[in-house]
Amino acid sequence: MRRSGLQARGGLSLRARRRLSAYGFIAPSVIILGVFLAWPMIWSLRTSFYDASQFAPPTFVGLGNYRKLLTDATFRGDLVNTLEYAAVVTPISVGLALAFALMLNRRLRGRSFFRASIFLPAVLSLGVMGIAWDFVLDPNIGLLPRWLQHAGLSLGNGVHDPNWAMAYVMFVGIWKNTGFYMVMYLAGLGTIPTDFYEAAAIDGAGPWARFRNITWPLLSNTTLFVFVIAAIASLQAFDQIFVMTRGGPFFKTETLVYLIYRKGFTDFDFGYASAAAWVLVVLVFAISLVQNFYFSRRQVKY
Amino acid sequence: MSRRVLLYAGLVLAVAVILLPVVWMVFASLKPEADITGHPAQLLPQHLTGSNYREVTRQIPFVRQFINSVIFAGGVTVFSLLFNSMTAFALARLDFPGRRVLFVAIILFLMIPYQVTLIPTYQIVAKLGLMNTFPGLIIPRATNAFGIFFLRQFFLGIPRSLDEAARIDGAGDWRIYARIILPLSTPALLTIALFDFMFNWNDLLWPLIFTTSTKMETLPAGLALFMGQHVTQYGVVMAGATLTTVPIVIAFLFVQRRFIQGIATTGLK
To answer: CB within 8 A of B246, min separation 6: which ones?
Structure first.
């Protein structure tokens, strides 16, 4: 029998002992991730091919649930809502976050206060604060509509207005996450060496030229990270919709996750809910891959 | 000069809008019911009252649910800090067969919406007889892909020469992990601890699904169920909301600076 590596006194080779130690480090996480994440994922994929509910034994239906999704007008509406929500909320949150980060990256009186205030929503419960927003935005008793009225602006008929409901939940979604992305951008800005700017100033570059040629390209890694996180979070919108509109009016604000929740935990149609969940998984994966591909080709190293 | 004024005006307006619901929540919790729904809408309370707070502690087992929240969010934070940092250390520093596979799996898990696994996880926890128990609430969350990824990135930024020096002095993996890597990672560990704590403290769906008795619920879940039954008691709901929010805001104010520093030094590049 051939043995490789050093032979240690205990009988195990040094390499084997190293490996054993490494497996000791990863064991708790691997077991928990395996039992409560990997296995449930496989199980939900399997369930998506079954007609399964809380009360009856599951029967195999093949692609039946997916076929049902394709012909279900509610599902198609939810898919459009989800994509619309992500397409609006992601760029606005990331754009605002970058703007705030640029504003607060300079010396400024009250900088800590501004940073902390803008970040604050990130630590608050979206479910709880959704209710507060619901009141503040209410067309009858809300403060914001009353103030805007003085400025001659209208916010429609509140969350029960089919034309406005989506805008309301989008607004609250942007409110929740912008500060978090701002902090990531501040971190990114902190890694840019200041001598780049000094050199540009000597060359006579204006603020826009400095942003365009130094800040933006050197932030591309941060932007990749923030964009992916923001898009994934947007695709999973649920909490504020649950407390503000319950997906209504007329399913105008129902997202994929809301559909999964409704089908899974109020209708107990586990098979259908699992199929919808896997559409979400594919969507999230696709967007991550596209973004990774797009950004990796123009990644900047310095 | 005028650009500076414009900058301040923009920031003040933005902060006013951002803080509006928080300020409104606190004021509404101190108002009598008639003032909240009265016309025209007012931000500042006209009459102060503590009755909303008395009512919310009378109508839900508030202290019990507060303790539940602390045990749940605190337990998840402690265990995930330990397990995530161990795995992150192995990924950043140790060489073992399967390391690449594990890292790719972590990246994939990062992208999994947790709602997808909710139904099977519910069935597993029920089968293990862990419904309505702290282990049932805590164990499935005792590690997470985001924490592992985040800490791995940070550990990679710590110079290898430090642990090589320790290794020459005869230190083993555990010693290097506990005596070199962890102490040098305090900002990252604090950051991820606050992430875990606030996410679980605020989370609604998880405790709602894995607890069925009022005595095991966490604050947000207890409040949500209370809200479902007493929609009209706005002031009472806002008093509960305020009490749920205050601990997390205090925790945030305490670690705010290190938190932001933690994200800043965690090499998101």
So the answer is: none
